[in-house]
Design goal:
By secondary structure, the chain is α+β, with helices and mostly antiparallel strands. Helix content is 40%, strand content 18%.
């Protein structure tokens, strides 16, 4: 009997021990699962917090931006990365939304960031999503690209070249400015030198090429008037001298010459007269607007083509280049 009770005791202890071990293992497994989930949620929480933090910083304080085009060469080169102050001219409440604390306005010669007036939107959802991804990845990922994979420019970076009340006009690539109430124009280079502004704006096209560039525009004017075969021989010869030229073309001047020719062929055409007068009078900048121009004048899609932009559409100012390291420093 004693042996039987001993066996019962041992059997019971063995079963209880095994059960306790099984319970301990299951408890450990459950604890392990809870820990994994906890770690996962902890990481997700940290990532979401970091993304929101980055978005808030980019939206309300400063934004990282990569230069996508050569329009600001030599001041800013393609793929330069810069800090854009988002507080210089007021704080944008949300991408594309109204601004608050906007008592400050852009000053002449500042390098400004503004919404591209010619941007072809893919819809508000895509626009917001693409900006969120761009800002959250510190400008490393941009899904807003064209069919060739090139980055579409929702934002432009240019220099504030003319202010409200002023008129600026261009001839053979050279700009001249007339201040508010003035009846005369001053060459921009002279104006900049006199007032101590940046001398970075420049032309890349050799002045000698403008005879051929104007001839090209003139020939287009004769074609528009249906008189392509009647173009003067000296115009044809001037164009032939540059017909094999492969460099940059000042298309603003080309269109200036084209509209002048169409107007001269038929002075009674009021539409042609108005189009030509737009070039002759120059670009007037209304109050509350600014005219942005690229420093690389011959390779810049800027205010010459889309006109002055509202000061409210200017969302920031470029203040610092942080990449590449060799050219790190302030931007002016």
């Amino acid at each position: 009997m004693a042996n039987y009770f001993t066996w019962i005791q041992q059997f019971t202890e063995t079963r209880l021990t095994r059960r306790l071990e099984r319970i301990a293992r299951e408890k450990a497994q459950r604890a392990q699962k809870r820990t994994f989930k906890g770690e996962l949620f902890s990481w997700l929480d940290a990532i979401v917090f970091a993304v929101i933090f980055v978005l808030l910083i980019n939206q309300y304080i400063f934004q990282l931006y990569m230069i996508p085009s050569p329009s600001m060469v030599e001041t800013l080169l393609i793929k330069d990365r810069v800090f854009v102050s988002k507080t210089s001219y007021g704080i944008e409440t949300y991408p594309g939304g109204p601004k608050i604390f906007d008592s400050k306005t852009p000053l002449r010669d500042e390098i400004i960031v503004f919404y591209n007036p010619e941007y072809d939107s893919k819809g508000p959802v895509f626009d917001v999503l693409s900006q969120i991804i761009y800002m959250a990845t510190f400008s490393l990922v941009n899904i807003d690209v064209d069919e060739d994979g090139n980055m579409r420019e929702r934002l432009y970076v240019k220099r504030a070249a003319a202010m409200g009340g002023e008129t600026i006009r261009f001839n053979d690539g050279s700009a001249s400015i007339s201040g508010a109430g003035q009846s005369y124009f001053t060459n921009e280079a002279e104006f900049r030198g006199t007032h101590g502004y940046s001398t970075a704006p420049h032309q890349s096209i050799e002045p000698s090429l403008y005879l051929g560039i104007n001839a090209y525009g003139t020939l287009l004017g004769y074609q528009d008037a249906g008189l392509g075969s009647s173009a003067p021989q000296h115009v044809v010869q001037s164009y032939q001298k540059v017909s094999n030229y492969q460099g940059l073309v000042d298309y603003y001047q080309v269109d200036h010459a084209r509209t002048r020719t169409v107007h001269q062929i038929d002075p009674s055409d009021l539409a042609a007269r108005a189009e030509y007068a737009r070039y002759e009078r120059g670009i007037y900048v209304p109050h509350g607007y600014v005219l942005p121009l690229g420093d690389n004048r011959d390779n810049s899609q800027d205010g010459r083509y889309f006109g002055p932009v509202l000061q409210d559409s200017v969302i920031g100012r470029v203040v610092f280049r942080f990449w590449p390291f060799a050219r790190m420093g302030g931007v002016s």
